[in-house]
Amino acid sequence: MAASAEIIRGIFAAYLANDRKRVENVLADDFRFTSPYDDRIDKPTYFDRCWKGSDWIERHELEKIVVDGNEAFVTYKCIAKGGKSFRNTEFFVFAGDKVRSIDVYFGASYQDGVFVKQAG
């Protein structure tokens, strides 16, 4: 399902462009988001908690997108302005051309190439 990979690429591009409306339009009305900080939060809560300006990000490097039916994994490296970087993997579930859910799995963080232990 090539459309799913294109939707994922579009979401990352929209985030960097601060194009919230584009992301809102691709998320299903019953969208849910899960991370180590959030358990199946709804669409309005996702935008309230998670949508921040992207002025701190230099770029995303989408390393791998694997689509299987209505599900997909994307692994990416985020490089922040100022030298911090991290790699995450996100699991997407689609309902047609809408994203029904995203689960994010955080990877290690680095500052100028040196591992930074996260507070636990």
Could you explain how this protein is built, in words?
There is one protein chain. With 120 residues, the chain is α+β, with helices and mostly antiparallel strands. The chain is built from three helices and seven strands, in the order H-H-E-E-H-E-E-E-E-E. Strands 1, 2, 3, 4, 5, 6 and 7 form a seven-stranded mixed beta sheet that branches. A hairpin with a 3-residue loop joins strand 4 and strand 5.
Secondary-structure map with pairings?
Layout: H1 2-16, H2 20-26, E1 27-34, E2 41-42, H3 43-50, E3 57-68, E4 71-80, E5 84-95, E6 98-111, E7 114-116
Parallel strand pairs: 1-6
Antiparallel strand pairs: 1-2, 3-4, 4-5, 5-6, 6-7
Helix pairs in contact: 1-2
Primary descriptors:
7 strands, 3 helices, 7-stranded mixed β-sheet, alpha+beta, 120 residues
Quick summary of this structure?
By secondary structure, the chain is of the alpha+beta class.
Run of helices and strands: HHEEHEEEEE
How many β-strands, per DSSP?
Answer: 7
The end-to-end distance, rounded to whole angstroms, is: 38 Å
**Share of residues in helices:** 25-40%
Biggest beta sheet attributes: 7 strands, mixed
Share of residues in strands: over 45%
Number of distinct helices: 3
Q: Which structural category do the helix and sheet elements fall into? A: alpha+beta
- Principal-axis shape equals globular
**Mean pLDDT, rounded to whole units?**
94
Determine Rg (CA atoms, Å).
14 Å
